[in-house]
């Protein structure tokens, strides 16, 4: 998915185009990491000085609801990233310092049990937290 496709999804579901939404989507697409609403606001404040944290958060939540963005919680704060372009089912390693992600191509759920006979799985989430190469070199362990 790209920014244009995301804007089309919003339009098809009755949401109007705004330059602020396009800018938010552009930031998420460019950064390719989980970001807090505060971080997105920092990127936008020069161009949109009157933009509020609440507006950013509401739109990020809308993007998640529409399947445009994914969300997770890091350090007690909800963070968002542009939905992965990878069409296959996968999970992520997530850097605790910068929010960068790396795909886990196999699904641990499949290895544990597959699909149970008496339960229909409609979704699940598996995330592994740690530090990416760049952040690990900056920290002492």
List keywords for this structure.
single chain; 141 residues; alpha+beta; Arc Repressor Mutant, subunit A; Dna Ligase, domain 1; three-stranded mixed sheet; globular
Oligomeric state, counting identical vs distinct chains: single chain
Count of DSSP helices? 6
* Span between termini: 37 Å
Q: What letter string, H or E per element, gives the SSE order?
A: HHEHHEEEEHEH
What's the architecture of the largest domain in CATH terms?
A: Orthogonal Bundle
Mean pLDDT: 89
Radius of gyration: 17 Å
DSSP helix fraction: 25-40%
By helix and strand content, what is the structural category? alpha+beta
- Could you name the CATH topology of the largest domain? Arc Repressor Mutant, subunit A
Classified by CATH, the class of the largest domain is Mainly Alpha
Major β-sheet annotation:
3 strands, antiparallel
Strand content: 15-25%
Summarize the structure.
This protein has helices at 3-12, 19-31, 37-44, 53-65, 108-112, 133-138; strands at 35-36, 69-74, 77-82, 91-95, 101-104, 127-130. It has 141 residues and is of the alpha+beta class.
Topology:
Layout: H1 3-12, H2 19-31, E1 35-36, H3 37-44, H4 53-65, E2 69-74, E3 77-82, E4 91-95, E5 101-104, H5 108-112, E6 127-130, H6 133-138
Parallel strand pairs: 4-6
Antiparallel strand pairs: 1-3, 2-3, 4-5
Helix pairs in contact: 3-4
